Amino acid sequence: MASLTVWQLTRRQTGWVGGPSCRHHRRPSSMWQVDVSAVMPWKPGGSWELDGAVRILAILRAKQADNDDVQYSCWIIVLMGLVSSLEAAEPLRWRPRREPETPVSVSPIDGPTSRAKARSGSNVPVVFRSGSTAARTVVELETMALEQHPSLGIAKASVEAERGRQRQAGLFPNPVIGYRGDEMGNRGTPGMQGGFIRQRIVMGNKLSLAADVAGRRVLERQYQAEAIRKRVVSDVRVQFYETLVVQQRVELAAQLVRLGDELARATAKLVEGEQVAANSLLQAEIEAEQARTLLENARNELVEATRKLAATVGDVSLDVGRLEGNVTSGMSDMDWDDCRRLILEKHPQRQAARARVATTELAILRARRQVVPDLDVRVGIGHMYSTGSDVTGVMVGVPLPIFDRNQGNVARAEAELVQARYELERLDVDLFHRAATAFRKYANARQQARRYAEQILPRASKSLELVRNGYRQGQVRYLVLLTTQRKYVEVNLSYLESIRRLREAVTIIESQLLTGAAVSVRR
Fold this sequence. Notes:
The chain is of the alpha+beta class and about 525 residues long. The protein has helices spanning about 50-65, 70-90, 140-150, 150-170, 205-270, 280-315, 335-345, 350-370, 405-470, 480-510; strands at about 5, 10, 15, 30-35, 115, 125, 175-180, 190-200, 375-385, 390-395. It has two domains: about 5-90, no CATH class; about 110-170 and about 205-365 and about 440-520, Up-down Bundle (Outer membrane efflux proteins (OEP)), CATH 1.20.1600. The chain has ten helices and ten strands. The strands form four sheets. It has a four-stranded antiparallel beta sheet with strand order 7-8-9-10, with no helix packed on it. Helix 5 (about 205-270) packs antiparallel against helix 10.
């Protein structure tokens, strides 16, 4: 049998337990036990709904309307019911708890005192998780993007195009076959009738060098394609976690709306009982409407984020649905040396730039070999009708490199080599510059997330707990509770944003600053 303890209002030296707005009676302090099992069900660890408390109030008033102690105790039941309804509107994530081992449904805020760390060595807590058998994960969306993103198709086609150029560059020229007729009409005869075959023989190993140059260009395109692949994966990850945070923000805003509605209804009950002024109801209604505005904005942001995520995957018709993930999973601490090494080592753009240098070096050798003349060989056979004999002819020609020694192309290739080397240096400087900016953003986001997790959130949680306790005892006005609750929600929203920035910074660094696949494809 469940029972509810009702404290009678009594005057003390320090003031009235019920607050200055309550009337006083000088009766001895007493305790009331009210059997509520027939009024509404209650479960251990559960909470009282406001309507149930109001029904209790009606029963007690009907039974002992002439008993002032009961009348004032009923108002305490209403206040306790209000606070309990606020707690009922808050899922367990609003209370300190141990983080579950398996993913659960998206929870905007967990208690700061029991957050697990993302991984050993990381001081950023694991806070936000979502889970559903039908939910999409970041790995699933990455796989979809790698299979169908148009930028990857462009990059792959570019590599194949260079492979075609490589094959073409190493091919011998086709032979020429033809007809030859000479001295036709001589002595009334057809003259000499026959045919010939002609072949240009490329000398100086120029075809092999041309194939090598084209092969270097294939390698360069492959590195560029790898950069595009990393950009696609990076874009998907950044947009996935941004959408996941917005999804959690919607749920947090929905909780805020429920809290605002509960407070507005409870305030209306108190206004009817002349326990608070009418202006308090207006203030509560304003807060409720502001919460609805926040919720609608968050929902619109979620729609935008899911559409962007579908476009990032490469399928604008994709129904993204609900997401499952942990925003802080896999984020380890790093210092500047780790960041710089992670970005610069084996960076696809640097590897492509090095391949470009090697390509231009071979191109210079190819241009210098171009001066080596090719042989032009022609063999013909014919029949001399005037003499009745068969004849054979052979011609071999070699161009003399007197005026054109390919000087212009050699100079151009040498200039391109200088340009490629400077481009590699420029890329190193640019990556270093961007790495400094990326690490600054990461460091700021990391310290902000830590400060929220270790300093701000615990204080906000403790403040809310103290105000709730004071509200239960009648020592704190409901507007103070409302303000504290709103501040707690605002702090958690700010924490959500700091976690989103931290995840984005880590993803960009791990992706070697490669983002924006849709606008970076080199055709």
